[in-house]
Amino acid sequence: MLNIGQLAQTGLLKKYGTDEIIFHQGDPGHEMFILLKGRVRLLAHSTDGTDIPFMDVNAGDFFGEMSLLENAPRSATVQALDDCMVIVINETNFESIIAQQPALALRIMKGMSKRIRQINEELAQLKGEINSEEGSEPEHKVDTPATSSIQNISDLVPEGHGSYPDIAPPSDAEYLFEKEIDCPVCGQKFTTTMVRSSKLKLKGVDSDLRQTFEGFNSLWYMVWVCPHCFYANFNFEFKKVDPNMRQWVTSQTERMKATGFKYSHPRRLDEVF
Q1: How does pLDDT run across 181-193, given as a tens digit for each residue?
Q2: Nearest to 61 by CA among 108, 29, 14, 22
Q3: Which end of the chain is less enclosed by CB atoms within 10 A, N or C?
Q4: Which residues contact 70 (CB under 8 A, 6 or more apart)?
Q5: Domain for residue 137, yes or no?
Q6: Which of the listed residues 132, 166, 181 is the one where a domain comes to its end?
Q7: CATH number at residue 59
Q8: Nearest by Cα to 164 from 269, 271, 273
């Protein structure tokens, strides 16, 4: 059990009036506060400039501990809802107070755990609401095979798209090997081309920070395509698929199959978009 009298002697007693700001988000933080009287509200600063309330703290609880423990700026603004009295514990006397009252450390850990759980529950609820809204009004409208006017790959290429009649040179073979992987969308296995990084010899770095290699153009092999569902992505992003993307790609599969094009086969740059 906390000894409030001892805390008050070691810390600093302060009073705040109703609606008074105790600290602002982004302020340097070297203190935590134990609320003896009143209520305070925690507000997060949004991108549009408004302060969004996300938690109220009542008498007997504490706030501001994150900045004290992490030596980081304040993660929220705190405003008094009533006339408040607090004990201020700074980084100088924090360790001595914990040594005198170990129960405070346990109280802080339990309080932080409670707040994290509350935030997780609110995020889960918000995510559910967003998914419900997206489910009621799909973001992508899909042509069915029966109504699609696609006859070949050229129908999918945007108007004005350039033509690049290049093809990867046969000499690339010494830099490559094949590996079987699982598609994160449809779950089926397929074989893709991988680059032997040990074979590469760095030639230079372009102004856009792209690495170039002697005798080999790695750009040919940076995109993987699943031949079953046609999901495609950069090799380093291939397995990072959120549920919405998975659903959309699945809905597009039949549309892409209607072209009759073999997406997993080698092809010229003017055959892709």
Answers
A1: 999 988 899 998 8
A2: 108
A3: N
A4: none
A5: no
A6: 132
A7: 2.60.120.10
A8: 269
